[in-house]
Amino acid sequence: MSEIKVNSIKGVAASTAALTINNTDGTATANLTNRQGKNIVINGDFRIAQRGLSSTATGMQTVDRFAVYNTGVDETPTQAQADVASGTTPYTLGFRKSLKVTNGNQTSGGGAAKYIWIQSIFEGQDFATSGWNYKSDSSFITVSFWVKSSVAQNFYGYVRTVDGSSYLYPFETGSLSADTWTKVTKTISGNSNLQIDNDNGHGFQLNILPYFGTGYTGTISLNAWSAYNSSVRVPDNTATWYTTNDSTFEITGVQIEVGSVSTSFDFRSFGDELLKCQRYCQKLGASNGTYDCMSVGNAIYNTLGFVPHRLTVTMRSTPSFTLLGSASDFNYTRDGGDYAPTAIVLDQAGRNMVALKVTGSNLSNDEAIRLFNMNTTGGYLFTAEV
Q1: Is the pLDDT of residue 12 over 50?
Q2: DSSP 285-335
Q3: The last residue of a domain, from among 277, 310, 337
Q4: What residues make up the domain containing 183?
């Protein structure tokens, strides 16, 4: 019987091997560009925006799983789910939505304590069980995303581990041409100092920085792991974008995958992506429509009822509850009549089910009640973000 001994198999015009052979144990590693489930990032194509389409508030306000933070600004920037323009390269690749940051008028210029900052936070178990040997410098993850800025300049970002002694790995986008989509790809090795716990806590971050003031920048090596120092996360960066009124910064196609090669984006169905997002945030009612938010429960007194609500998927942790709008945006039905509640609050919560306490008049002990939103303002928001 004959045999062929090779180190790898690669296409004639390819720059990377399709199959790599381990000469010690004979195992093989395949470069599968279309394997499903490879992207650790949730909502990296920004199709899901349960909280809203646009906001000037800081934090996680629009697209799911991504936050835009700002501090020290003269005029608050706007974060929004935006449309990717047809005819652009990302559009031809299948991307239809992006996260867009529109700067305000920063009349006082840059400053040490100022920033505009995009962040996505991950559970530790998402990386601990990903197949990445994060303690080995010969094992890799690859970060990739498309970015467009209205101002031509270089930008920075970093990934960070949080468990144990925190470490960060800063990188740069390279000089971007104004109003031109550019794909950024960074291959990141493991490091023996890293710790990522296999739990549902805060274990890993991706940070992309339209602007970081000098209170967070300084002398630091790019493309290398170093101990986390909150005062020096990336090199000093120019304030040109920050000081340009109405400048924009837009990203889409954010992917983190195991391996040293950036492969095609892992598009999941809208339904699958929404379910992944709902582990952290579930919104019912409000802009989704009248009668979208309905629950059935029981009155226990003439002025008090309890309404259980089963969550769509198991949430990461016990969720917090926000009533969208006010109690006046809801009605409850009993005995054929509709009545307005005076208060709706969270009574008990678990990862799979919650119970709401409804206060009102015209209730009757041990009678069924149906709670529903009367307009597109009233709704529930359950959150269990990392």
Answers
A1: yes
A2: EGGG-TT-SEEEEEESSSSEEEEEEE-SS--SSSPEEEEES-GGGEEEEET
A3: 277
A4: 54-277
